Amino acid sequence: MPSPSNFPKDTLLRVIKTIEALSDCKTRRELKLTIELHVLSLFDCNAAIYGWLDTDMAMNTMDAIGLTKKDLATINKFVPYDPASVKLFKNRGRLMAYDVDLPRKRFLEKVECFFKKFPKEKRKDHPYFKNFQTNLMMRDPLGSSFGIGLQRLQPYTREFTSKDVVLLELLGPHIFSAAKTLLLSQEYFDFRALAEMASNRDRPIALLNKDGEIIYCNQTFTNYFSVGTGQNLPEPLEMDFVSEMERLNKSKKFRSPLEDRDIDLPEGAFRFQLNLVHDEQLNRENRYYMELEPLLEPGSELEKAMKEKKLNKKATKVCELVRAGNDNKQIVDELKDAIDTDLIMEITTVEHYIKVLHKKFGTDGNRSKLVADLNKLSHKREPSS
To answer: Which H or E run contains 265?
Structure first.
């Protein structure tokens, strides 16, 4: 991979100018214009799409540039089959580019599979496939399902290179910081879309004021921390929130993206993500969007519990993937390329082991409670005295 220090001076100056423009964005429209004028020209692209992917690999809360409504409908249908998207989001990758990580022919092969799987779909209704040339994608390094894709559609045909990958590594955190803040701001004041997005997530999500009072949280958050709307965060989490809020405000002041951070709570170990939500036009006070990604540490109570409950190899693997928030289809997809072929399962086998887990952990078929209980066991055990 080329080093940024080897880039031409003109390229580095354009990167700096783009970072400054991103940090100055005050509205969603300004962000979209900045990506169009600065980011697309820097990468020699003519299309972009950014937003969240839900557990079914469907885009929501997104903005797009250079793509028609028909193109977006095609992308939404195809993204669960797109090899680069699957590797990036389901296999927890960070960057993925056709021409660099995957040959373009893999995309074309999956397009053919798409039309075989859905014979009623007509090619003439999906001009996107004919115009598509290549794609460079990045997932939020802070662990959320937020991502951006920079695309070249006809007549742009040049291949992406490792230089483009390094450039996106430099710019990505700044794009995500600006985009999530502005998109979340709009979602908060619309609110219904934010609630709908969060309710479908198997990880804890909450919207907070600066005092740590919960304005909104999803059921998973309540299952973990036994608090809900109108209440304050429990003390250990509140201390981490205050610390992270100070880091976030400092990072905004110095125009630098917030680095990843892991925290250890009585409820488990988590990757902590905090985004600022504001609306200067309505002169509302700042709100903070908190999302926690559960982590499993070696030597955890969960590891001990899985052994005590005598889970076999397949049940143990399904247990780990359920704890991470994967649905049944995602578990099948995660395991289909497993080096240990004994772990490859059909959906009916996964469903069987989910029932086993509910029985073993006493969650009575409640998936959200199962995920929460597994993660409460995921923090490291105290050393025995």
So the answer is: strand 261-265
Residue 135 to residues 59, 82, 138, 201, Cα–Cα distance (Å): 16, 11, 10, 27
How far is Cα 348 from Cα 343, in angstroms, rounded to an integer?
14
The DSSP element (H or E) to which 192 belongs, if any, is helix 192-199
Which residue reads 């400092």 in tokens? 250
Element (H, E) at 247: helix 235-253
Please state, as a whole number, how many other Cβ atoms lie within 10 Å of the Cβ of residue 109.
12
Q: What is the pLDDT along the chain (385 residues), one digit of tens a residue?
A: 667 677 888 888 999 999 999 988 888 888 999 999 999 999 999 999 988 765 554 555 568 999 998 998 898 889 888 888 887 776 556 788 999 988 999 999 999 999 998 888 999 999 999 999 999 999 886 656 778 999 999 999 899 999 999 999 889 888 988 887 776 666 555 555 566 666 666 678 888 888 898 888 888 888 888 898 889 999 889 999 998 888 877 766 545 555 667 787 777 778 788 877 765 544 556 788 888 877 765 567 787 888 889 898 889 889 988 887 788 888 888 787 665 677 888 999 999 999 999 999 999 888 888 988 888 787 544 444 3
Residues 182-198, buried b or exposed e (16+ Cβ, 10 A)? bbbbbbbeeeeebbebb
